[in-house]
Specification:
With about 110 residues, the protein is an alpha+beta fold. The protein has one domain: Orthogonal Bundle (Arc Repressor Mutant, subunit A), CATH 1.10.10. It is built from 4 helices and 3 strands. The chain has helices at about 5-25, 30-40, 45-60, 80-105, and strands at about 25, 65-70, 75-80. Strand 2 and strand 3 form a beta hairpin. It is globular.
Length: about 110
């Protein structure tokens, strides 16, 4: 089941922060692959959603960007800043609480 695009868009920053917290330095295509793999191919990130979200995280001081030359290509890597590491913990705590509230409100069972 493909998740609702609005729900995904609202969670994308948290997903990216968590990916970077778990994996350290990553580049965009690597993030796309990791999300696809982790979701059993039910979430396919598009570059048109990924890069604006990464730019927003960078503008907010949550991720840092470095460029490395790989072969004959420059590759842009993203890592969490100190603030990004703290914010990741906050965002994960917030989303866990939100999911719990939605389960209670909608009387959802966790085994859906």
């Amino acid at each position: 089941m493909q998740p609702n695009s609005e729900l995904l868009r609202g969670s994308l920053g948290t997903i990216l922060l968590n990916l970077l917290a778990e994996n350290g330095k990553m580049y965009g295509y690597e993030m796309i692959r990791k999300v696809k793999e982790a979701s059993g191919s039910s979430i396919i990130l598009k570059e048109g959603a990924l890069y604006p979200a990464l730019h927003k995280l960078e503008a907010n001081g949550l991720v840092a960007v470095s460029i490395e030359n790989i072969g004959n290509r420059n590759r842009k890597y993203y890592t969490l800043t100190k603030t990004g590491k703290s914010e990741t913990k906050v965002k994960l705590w917030e989303i866990a609480g939100f999911i719990e509230q939605m389960q209670q409100l909608l009387k959802l069972k966790t085994a859906l």
